[in-house]
Design the sequence.
C-alpha cells in the first residue's frame, strides 16, 4: 500500500487531522505522519531518517504488527486503543549521551499523561512508566552511528491507553483508562508528551547531561529507596537504588556499602517488590 493511502484516520478521534490539530509544539511532530498499521514505528522512523527526514519527524501508528521492546522482546500493539509513536532526533552529541534521551522522554511521558488525564505515574528506570506497580508505557531508544558520531536517534514510545485484554502471561501491564476511569484522547496525549519533551530536551541539550533534570527525575522515580536486583551480564547483584546521576546511571548501594553506577545500556534492573 502506498504511503499516501495509509494516512487515513481510524476513528473520529485519532488520525492525521487530529494529530495536526492537537500538536502545539515548536519542532517535535513537524511533520507528524499517521498510519493505521505499521510493522514498527521505530523501523519506519529509521527508514524516514535514511530518506532525509528532518529532526522532529514523528511517526504514529494505530497498530503495530511487529512492535518491539528491548533486546528483541515483543511489544503488544493491538489496534484502536494505544499510542505507538517514534520521534526522530538528529543531534550532534556523542553516542554516550544518546541513552540519556530515554530518560528525558520518560519525564515527558509522565507530564504528558498527567496533563491529559490527571494521572500521576512514576518512572521505573530506565524506560518504563508505571502506575500502581504496573507498566503503562515502555520506551525504546535506538541510534545509528556514523563512524564515532551519532547519525540519528529514534525514541519509540508505547502507551497503553484504552481498556483491553492483555495476553494471560502479561500480568504486569495496565492502561491509562483503567487507572483513571475516563476516556483519554490519544492525539492529545501524544501532543502533550511532545510539548513536554521539547522543554526537557532543551535543558538536556544546554547542559549536555541530565544535571538540570536530576531532581525531577529522582522525585518521579519508582526505584529510589527501593531494593533492586541488577541483572548484569557479568552476574546478578542486589542493592538499594539511590537515584540517577547526571549521566543517567542508576546509583545502587550494595550490601557491602559500596555504590555502583549502573549504565542503562548494559543491564536490566528489576524491582523485587512485586513488579518484575
Ligand atoms: C520496552 O521494552 O518497554 C520498550 C517498548 C517500546 C514500544 C514502542 S511502541 C512504538 C515503538 N515501536 C516499537 O516497535 N517499539 C516502540 P522492554 O523494557 O524490553 O519491555 C518489554 C516487555 O514489556 C515485554 O517482554 C513484556 O513483558 C512487556 N510488554 C509487552 N507489551 C506490553 C504492553 N503493551 N504493555 C505493558 N507491558 C508490555
Sequence:
Amino acid at each position: 500500500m502506498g504511503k499516501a493511502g495509509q494516512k487515513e484516520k481510524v476513528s473520529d478521534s485519532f488520525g492525521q487531522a487530529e494529530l495536526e490539530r492537537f500538536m502545539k509544539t515548536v519542532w517535535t511532530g513537524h511533520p507528524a505522519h499517521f498510519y493505521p498499521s505499521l510493522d514498527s514505528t521505530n523501523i519506519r522512523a529509521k527508514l524516514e531518517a535514511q530518506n532525509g527526514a528532518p529532526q522532529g519527524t514523528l511517526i504514529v501508528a494505530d497498530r503495530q504488527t511487529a512492535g518491539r521492546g528491548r533486546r528483541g522482546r515483543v511489544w503488544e500493539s493491538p489496534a484502536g486503543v494505544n499510542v505507538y509513536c517514534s520521534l526522530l532526533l538528529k543531534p550532534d552529541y556523542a553516542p554516550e549521551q544518546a541513552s540519556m534521551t530515554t530518560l528525558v522522554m520518560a519525564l515527558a511521558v509522565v507530564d504528558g499523561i498527567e496533563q491529559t488525564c490527571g494521572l500521576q505515574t512514576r518512572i521505573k528506570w530506565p524506560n518504563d512508566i508505571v502506575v500502581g506497580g504496573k507498566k503503562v508505557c515502555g520506551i525504546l531508544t535506538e541510534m545509528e552511528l556514523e563512524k564515532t558520531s551519532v547519525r540519528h536517534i529514534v525514541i519509540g514510545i508505547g502507551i497503553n491507553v484504552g481498556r483491553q485484554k492483555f495476553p494471560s502471561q502479561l500480568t504486569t501491564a495496565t492502561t491509562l483508562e483503567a487507572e483513571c476511569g475516563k476516556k483519554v484522547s490519544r492525539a492529545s496525549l501524544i501532543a502533550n508528551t511532545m510539548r513536554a519533551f521539547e522543554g526537557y530536551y532543551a535543558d538536556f541539550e544546554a547542559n549536555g547531561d541530565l544535571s538540570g533534570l536530576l531532581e525531577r527525575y529522582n522525585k518521579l522515580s519508582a526505584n529510589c529507596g527501593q531494593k533492586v536486583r541488577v541483572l548484569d551480564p557479568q552476574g546478578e547483584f542486589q542493592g538499594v537504588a539511590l537515584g540517577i546521576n547526571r549521566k543517567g546511571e542508576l546509583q545502587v548501594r550494595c550490601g557491602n556499602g559500596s555504590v555502583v553506577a549502573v549504565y542503562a545500556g548494559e543491564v536490566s534492573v528489576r524491582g523485587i517488590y512485586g513488579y518484575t
Remarks:
- The first strand starts at residue 32 and ends at 35.
- Residues 1-5 have pLDDT under 50 and may be disordered.
- The pocket of biotinyl-5-AMP is lined by residues 40-42, 64, 67-70, 73-76, 84, 86, 127-128, 135, 138-140, 156-158, 160, 170, 173 (CB under 6 Å).
- Helices lie at 3-6, 16-22, 41-50, 95-98, 100-117, 176-180, 186-207, 214-220.
